[in-house]
Write a structure and sequence with these properties.
- It contains 19 helices and seven strands.
- By secondary structure, the chain is of the alpha/beta class.
- Among the domains are: about 140 residues, no CATH class; about 50 residues, no CATH class.
- The longest helix is centred in the C-terminal third of the chain and has 23 residues.
- The termini are far apart.
């Protein structure tokens, strides 16, 4: 049984109208990249404006003001350990007095786009600094409406974790895959278990577990192999897809010996250790695999072009020692795939493809008896003759 009580119990978290100057952007927002997290508030505002499509909410907010039906969610700044109510219990008078005190400031943990938009709409200096020319000029009534915003107050960040998980992991306001995974990792750091999180967000498809494992694998690659995982953050869904493939699991070391056979049994994902998911014996395989699906910076491109290349080709390649060796040497995924059934199968396939193309060329060759075409035909004839001589010998 979970040691965390049902997160929605209690009637109800205080809803306050808070002066906008007392509300601050969240430097630990899971949607912010690591290099932006923890930065000063003007840097956070600049990043939100540049990357979070604030324009799409600026016009309706600038015309209508702030809709009370979408309150922000915030936590008070400062130590509330002695005042915070127990889960499911009504807040104390001291706690209410603290959060209503005119000097109390709050960190907004849900609604940073709306807060940033409201702040920019009200502040002409900020608009000039961000070079905004298309946002509406707000009326005096709208400015007055934006002076205070409706905010639901949670006592601590830990208390609000389940709500944000439900809303953004399985709910109707889903974050991107990597942001979800970071948030799940944050919940695990707060002493939640995978089972706790699955129960609280209503996940029955192992989505929470797959996100957690994929995130921990990339963290292990960053910390133990000193790999740049920035591309992996952008295409995090590749990892989510890959770890569901049987052959990939074997390649990454997620198996154990069977008592009566030389075969190895695949570990269920629930048995993959989150603190050290990839065994030391398979770290080189992890490095290769990440290079194949994400590349290595700008100099080495990935061997896949789209997600289905993982299931259609790469998952078969990693089960064949000869195909793995070929892919490591050439980074040619399709040709490595041809080796998964052995070299003879690959040769038959290559010769069949070559013959098909030659037959197609033969159909139109009589119309192009130029020197260049003759030269290419001579090359084909010489190569075909040498292949025939080699196999005959």
């Amino acid at each position: 049984m979970s040691k965390h009580p049902a997160a929605g119990l209690g009637r109800k978290r205080p809803l306050l109208n808070v002066p906008i100057g007392h509300l601050h952007l969240d430097p630990d927002n899971p949607r912010l990249p690591e290099e932006v997290q923890g930065k000063p508030e003007d840097v956070l505002l600049q990043h939100l404006f540049s990357h979070f499509d604030l324009d799409e909410i600026a016009t309706p907010m600038g015309q209508n003001g702030y809709f009370d039906e979408e309150p922000l969610v915030a936590i008070p700044q400062g130590d509330l350990a002695r005042l915070a109510p127990s889960a499911g219990q009504p807040p104390s008078k001291e706690y209410i007095a603290f959060i209503q005190h005119p000097n109390t400031r709050f960190t907004v943990v849900e609604g940073n786009r709306r807060l940033a938009t409201a702040r920019i709409l009200r502040d002409q200096v900020t608009r000039q600094k961000l070079r905004i020319r298309t946002w509406p000029e707000i009326s005096a009534k709208v400015r007055e409406d934006l002076d205070e915003l409706p905010v639901i107050i949670y006592p601590t960040r830990k208390e609000v974790l389940p709500y944000l998980g439900v809303r953004h992991i399985t709910g109707n306001k889903k974050w991107d895959s990597y942001a979800k995974a970071r948030y799940i990792s944050a919940m695990l750091d707060e002493d939640y278990t995978i089972e706790d999180i699955e129960r609280e967000v209503g996940d029955r498809s192992q989505g929470v577990l797959k996100n957690a494992i994929s995130y921990k694998v990339l963290e292990q690659a960053r910390l133990e192999l000193d790999l740049d995982i920035s591309r992996a953050k952008e295409d995090f869904s590749y990892m989510l897809l890959a770890i569901g493939q049987r052959n990939v699991k074997l390649f990454l070391g997620w198996s154990k010996p069977t008592p009566r056979s030389d075969d190895r049994k695949i570990l269920p994902l629930s048995e993959v250790p989150l603190d050290h998911p990839i065994p030391d014996t398979h770290l080189s395989n992890l490095q290769d695999f990440l290079s194949w699906i994400y590349g290595e910076g700008s100099k080495t491109l990935p061997v896949i072009k789209e997600s289905r290349d993982i299931t259609n080709y790469l998952s078969h390649v990693v089960a064949s020692p000869s195909a793995i060796a070929y892919l490591r040497k050439t980074r040619d995924l399709r040709e490595a795939y041809e080796l998964t059934d052995g070299e003879e199968s690959m040769i038959r396939s290559l010769l069949g493809t070559a013959n098909t193309k030659l037959e197609k060329a033969l159909g139109v060759a009589h119309r192009h008896k130029t020197a260049d075409v003759i030269a290419e035909a001579e090359k084909c004839a010489a190569t075909a003759s040498q292949v025939y001589k080699t196999v005959k010998e």
